[in-house]
Write a structure and sequence with these properties.
- The complex is a heterodimer.
- Helices cover 31% and strands 18% of the residues of chain A.
- By secondary structure, chain A is an alpha/beta fold.
- Chain A has 2 domains: 257 residues, Aconitase, domain 3, CATH 3.30.499; 149 residues, 2-Layer Sandwich (Aconitase, domain 3), CATH 3.30.499.
- In chain A, strands 4-3-2-5-6 form a 5-stranded parallel β-sheet, sandwiched between helices.
- The radius of gyration of chain A is 21 Å and the shape is globular.
- Chain B contains 8 helices and 7 strands.
- A 7-stranded mixed β-sheet of chain B has the order 4-3-2-1-5-6-7.
- Chain B starts with a strand and ends in a 15-residue tail after the last helix.
- Classes of the chains: A alpha/beta, B alpha/beta.
- Chains A and B meet through β1, α2, α3 and α5 of A and α5 and α8 of B.
């Protein structure tokens, strides 16, 4: 009998089937569930069950982040309905418009903890795996079912171990690793799988950098992305949580595959347009003229991202033919960026700072692209039409590459501006 | 056997932004969503789709966002079923939960073309041409998924289980595979 993966252990514990192995279908009870504006749909389906309250309001997190502040009258009424529902059901873990992005809030507020099973009505719920939780996305009606019954069916996934070794060269970041991995795996290369990140290069990353890897695991189709918990993880919870239930894969766990990647020579990467897996070294696309540069999102809107951008923007100006838009991932990130003068640098350089939230990532407001426009973005998706017009093009890159491109008005290798 | 429907063909990796763009998601009205269905992949789809039509796609259909509106847009537009080489997991679950038939077929995308008339034979696990002898096999739906589809989706499924209080919801779904 071989050992078990962390996914098998967490789902086994959550389903009271301690022997559950990859391939088993279990009825699992989540430790934490999260939804955003689509809580509207969750509530609508839930009300049809005729139950007075959800199974456990203390495990429910609701964050308004996708269209905040409200972009239309329809959104405003959706927000109002959700606030009413929060009061009615006594949901205390509610974060109203302006507090930040749901995935950021879960980790930043230490709502998610290692070893937990977390469900969210957003595909990038995988982000929470950065602290060693098993976190996966579901739809709104499914969440209504969880609110009603406290459980759902899940197939225990196979796990692909990704061992990152080496040290990133100057100008490259965990985003470049994530884009390169999406290229290697393809858009469905991790379908229904858990990606488990390990190796000395992973261990040397901050929680914020790790969140980029687990966030973008979704772009290879992964059901979950998990970083093996270590000292960085336990340090994250110092002063917040006394008893951590850290779950690790056994040494002889049965991995479906192991991928070893040495990141030492990785250049800054750019993906796109239209396909996340279409990632290449920045030299292949340098010089492409851009209209908009966007830094933010659940992928790269954290303090270290804003600082990396500010380092490049310091003493420079955004190119006159280009606009730079920055949306901090949370209120706390914004406050810290002000404290560290990253915000000042961004604004002085000609950037526009948006309220914390998803911003223009999903094309509903605050920087929508017109026909023929080109954007370079620190987000995770460049699908055609995502940020506005179907005739617009989106390239994905690290915050440093986006900032360098904003200065030059064209896609630019950040190493040129880091010397 | 379903009535005859027409085929709408799509390729690999049809993402949820193509099925229903994020810019249309602030309005949850199914008719509004259906009027923009598949806009990013085929601009004629929303106005041309008729009740009973069938989508045949390549691999990884529905990748991307968890937005359930992708299923709502197709279902309300009249789509009878989506047959694909493979599905992205959240889209697949959403379809089952909202009672939209989804089936995996390794060959349907090779066998059928845009505009073909087909009949969906779910009990027989196949999609057959209504004009000639072409057919494509469908993989059987897993038992725990079929239970939900048979009730018409997750809401009726759970309603029924809630009536049978005393039995923990869904425990009968659990199987263990070693």
């Amino acid at each position: 009998m071989t050992g078990r993966t962390a996914s098998e252990k967490i789902l086994g514990r959550a389903s009271r089937c301690p022997d559950a192995r990859a391939g088993a279908v279990v009825e699992a009870s989540p430790d934490l569930v999260m939804s955003h504006e689509n809580t509207f749909l969750v509530g609508k389906s839930f009300s049809s069950f005729g139950l007075a309250y959800p199974w456990d309001p203390s495990r429910i997190v609701i964050v308004l982040d996708h269209r905040t502040p409200a972009n239309t009258a329809t959104t405003a009424s959706v927000h109002a309905r959700i606030r009413a529902l929060v009061r009615e059901y006594g949901i205390e873990k509610f974060f109203d418009a302006g507090e930040g992005i749901c995935h950021q809030i879960l980790v930043e507020e230490r709502l998610v903890r290692p070893g937990q099973l977390v469900l969210g009505t957003d595909s990038h719920t995988t982000t929470a795996g950065a602290v060693g939780a098993f976190a996966t996305g579901i739809g709104a009606t499914e969440m209504a079912g969880v609110w009603a019954t406290g459980s759902l069916w899940l197939r225990v996934p196979k796990t692909i171990q990704i061992e990152l070794s080496g040290r990133l060269p100057p100008g490259s970041y965990s985003k470049d690793v994530a884009l390169d991995l999406t290229r290697r795996l393809g858009p469905s290369g991790a379908d229904y799988r858990c990606l488990e990140f390990t190796g000395d290069a992973t261990r040397s990353m901050t929680v914020s950098s790790r969140m980029v890897l687990t966030n973008m695991a979704m772009e290879a189709g992964a059901k979950a992305g998990m970083v093996e918990p270590d000292m960085v993880t336990t340090d994250w919870y110092k002063g917040h949580e006394a008893n951590l239930d850290v779950v690790l894969s056994d040494g002889d766990a049965n991995y479906e595959d192991r991928l070893k990647v040495d990141i030492s020579g990785l250049p800054p990467m750019v993906s796109g347009p239209h396909k996340v897996e279409d990632a290449k070294g920045v030299d292949k696309v340098e010089g492409i003229r851009i209209d908009q540069a966007f830094i933010g999102t659940c992928t790269n809107g954290r303090l270290e991202d804003l600082i990396a951008a500010a380092r490049i923007l310091k003493g420079r100006k955004v190119h006159p033919g280009c606009r730079l838009i920055v949306a901090p991932a949370s209120r706390k990130v914004l406050i810290e960026a002000i404290g560290k003068e990253a915000a000042q640098t961004i604004i002085t350089a000609g950037g526009t700072i948006l309220p914390p939230g998803c911003g223009p990532c999903l094309g509903s407001h605050e920087g929508v692209l017109g026909a023929g426009e080109v954007c370079i973005s620190s987000s995770n998706r460049n699908f055609r039409g995502r940020m506005g017009s179907d005739e617009a093009e989106i390239y994905l890159a690290s915050p440093a590459t986006v900032a360098a491109s904003a200065v030059e008005g064209k896609i630019t290798d950040p190493r040129r501006l880091l010397v | 056997m379903s009535d005859q429907g027409r085929v709408w063909k799509f390729g690999d990796d049809v993402n949820t932004d193509l099925i229903i763009s994020g810019k249309h998601l602030d309005n949850y009205d199914p008719a509004h969503l259906a009027s923009h269905a598949m806009e990013g992949a085929n601009k004629d789809f929303a106005s041309g789709v008729r009740r009973g039509d069938i989508i045949i796609a390549g691999a990884n259909f529905g990748c991307g966002s968890s937005r359930e509106q992708a299923v709502m847009a197709l279902k309300h537009g009249g789509v009878e079923a989506v047959i694909a080489r493979s599905f992205a997991r959240i889209f697949y679950r959403n379809a089952v939960n909202l009672g939209l038939t989804v089936a995996v077929s390794p060959s349907a995308a090779d066998v059928f073309q845009d505009g073909d008339s087909v009949v969906l034979d779910l009990p027989g696990h196949r999609l057959v041409s209504s004009t000639d002898n072409r057919l494509a096999d469908l993989e059987p739906v897993p038992a725990h998924v079929k239970m939900i589809l048979d009730e018409g989706g997750l809401v009726p499924f759970i309603k029924k289980r809630l009536k049978e209080r005393g039995v923990a919801v869904g425990t009968e779904l659990v199987t263990r595979v070693r």
